[in-house]
Amino acid sequence: MNHYAKLTRITYIALLALALAAPLLGLYPVFVMKLLCFALFACAFNLLLGFTGLLSFGHAAFFGFAAYITGWGIKSQGWTPEIGILGGAIVAALLGLLVGLVAIRRQGIYFAMITLAMAQMVYFICLQASFTGGEDGLQGVPRGNLFGVLPLASDTTMYYVVVAVFVACFLGISRIVHSPFGQVLKMIRENEPRAISLGYEVDRYKLLAFVLSAGLAGLAGSLKTLVMGFATLSDVHWSMSGEVILMSLLGGVGTFFGPVFGAGIVISLQNLLADKVGAWVTVIIGAIFVVCVLAFRKGVVGELQAYLERRRAAKA
Amino acid sequence: MEIFGIPHQAFMGQLLLGLVNGAFYAMLSLGLAVIFGLLDIVNFAHGALYMLGAFSAWIMLDKWGVNYWFALILAPLVVGALGVIIERLFLKHLYGLDPLYGLLLTFGLSLILEGVFREQYGVSGQNYPVPELLSGATNLGFMVLPNYRAWVVVASLVVCLGTWFLIERTRLGAYLRAGTENAKLVQAFGVNVPLMVMLTYGAGAALAGLAGVLAAPIIQVTPLMGSNLIIVVFAVVVIGGMGSILGSVITGLGLGVVEGLTRVFYPEASSVVVFVVMVIVLILRPAGLFGKEA
Questions:
Q1: Which of A149, B119, B188, B220 has the fewest Cβ atoms nearer than 10 Å?
Q2: What are the pLDDT digits (tens) for A157-180?
Q3: Domain for residue B13, yes or no?
Q4: Quick one: closest CA in B to A105, which residue?
Q5: Which pLDDT tens digit goes with each residue over A264-301?
Q6: CA angle, residues B164, B167, B170, in degrees to nearest 5
């Protein structure tokens, strides 16, 4: 165990150092920021799928709706960036409460279908509402000054803010999972009837997990609006819900670092291929889905962990 | 003549359009229910297979001049054959796993199918002409009925009732229902269950393909026509519950009509009304209108 924990810690420290040094190494900061936003989105999603066992097929609703709220607030209500992000996250959490209340009435496969349908409803609302800018979306959202003093227009400043938010949320999620509350969530994932028979109010735990996950997904969406300066319909589209599932699945559902890794792969892939292969990107994404489900359901990080465990067991 | 202040012709027109949409909901949710019953897989690719049916018909006409009536038979066969291949290549590895994996795999498959067609044909729609025999409209006195739409409603009702009869009233259907209850036991009695499963998925796929051919002359044939529909069909399935075949048919038609009426009275809400109904049903009767609580 010690050896393993040490390895994990060294990996994290190295990655953090890499993240902090990225702008000096010549990595394009906007790309890394986008990657971190999606990594946060995937971590939020994984809190629900990986640690509570609920597959939401509608997380784009929270991500995208929060992105719109932030864009609208900053652009037409004169919100500061911190209020914009907080506002987006809170609205997403409230939306999560509404969706969650309905969706947890059914289990398993129905839960997935209900969240997908409700997210589609949010999509149509965003398509028709006036504050979202319809087909055009919201463009040219200014970054403004953080707390009124720190101008975010510079990519480097913005970058370190994004890194700080990401690290804080990552640690927060890890804290949630390791708390007694997180242990109950794991129990629900492993054996729901057992949890009920032990007297836990399972629905309340599921709902809270759903709201937390929705709020964090919203935070990721808000941050994305601030970084990229726009919020569009593709943020709320079902294909975005599919992408975040793929990120978690590819990296490793139920691992801490898996979703980050998965987000890195998917976003890099899209970046590399977007202007070269056109619609084939969708085909490639679909193919990765199929391969993941058939060949390695634990994901890259999950398989690696399993391999290390096996090797340790063989040594002992 | 007016009904609630809406011109009579417009009202009947939307009602008919609602019935047509409802017929598609019914056919697709029926296929989903049959597949889910035996395979324990929620077939996300159902929308893509529906799209494939419409495209096969269009390609057959465009490339080889195969007319509508032949396409009505050939396209479902093509889609059904693809369904068999999908089952053999992919789905068969997932039996016994959490049904969520089936949903994810078929989601991936539908992305692949959709992407390929988008690459080939772009997102703009292709027009499929209404077959000559069914073009035009009949004046019924109280409304003008477009012949093709009437045909779609009648044809899909016949298909749905035929499926119901096959499953509930024949020997083959009895094997199928037994397989749904306990596949191992049925296999022990000497029924070739893997073959049955394969053909069931193929038949479900063919049903989706048939719906696609029926839809082709009414809507634009586009690569995205399936994914937009499948999400609504999921809501229909949640509302109706996947337990009963006649239940899914009634729910599908009913929701189509509700949608049509909403388009008359409050058009802004017509795209979300099915989802709103779903929320209400989940609050009042979580198992669905015709469902049994698992």
A1: A149
A2: 889 999 999 999 999 999 999 999
A3: no
A4: B286
A5: 999 998 888 877 777 788 899 899 989 999 988 888 88
A6: 115
pTM of the complete model: 0.91
CB contact under 8 A, B109 and A290: yes
Q: Per the CB < 8 Å rule, is A293 touching B94?
A: yes
Q: Are B250 and B237 in contact (CB under 8 A)?
A: no
For residue B6, with 0-12 CB atoms within 10 Å meaning exposed, 13-18 middle and 19 or more buried, which class applies?
middle
Residue-range definition of the domain harbouring residue B192: 18-123+147-223
Q: What is the largest CA-CA distance in chain A?
A: 64
Looking at beta carbons, which residues of chain A come within 8 Å of B273? none
In angstroms, the CA A199 to CA A127 distance is 43
Give the span between the Cα atoms of A12 and A142, in whole angstroms: 33
User: How far off is chain A from B47, nearest CA to CA, in Å?
Assistant: 14
Task: Answer whether residue B198 is part of any domain.
Answer: yes
The verdict on B275 touching A (C-beta cutoff 8 Å) is yes
Interface check B269 vs A, CB under 8 A: no
Structural element, H or E, at residue B237: helix B225-240
Residue B6 lies inside a defined structural domain of this protein? no
The answer as to whether B241 is a domain residue is no
Give the count of domains, chain B.
Answer: 1
Give the torsion sign (CA, B212, B214, B220, B225): negative
Alpha helices, H only, chain A: 2-21, 29-52, 59-76, 81-103, 108-128, 155-178, 180-190, 192-197, 202-228, 238-251, 258-277, 280-295, 299-315
Please tell me the distance from the alpha carbon of residue B50 to that of residue B216, in angstroms, as a whole number. Answer: 10
Q: How far is it, in rounded angstroms, from Cα B91 to Cα B86?
A: 7
Q: Is the distance from CB of B79 to CB of B204 less than 8 angstroms?
A: no
Residue from B100, B118, B230, B270 whose CB has the most chain A CBs within 10 Å, to mutate: B100
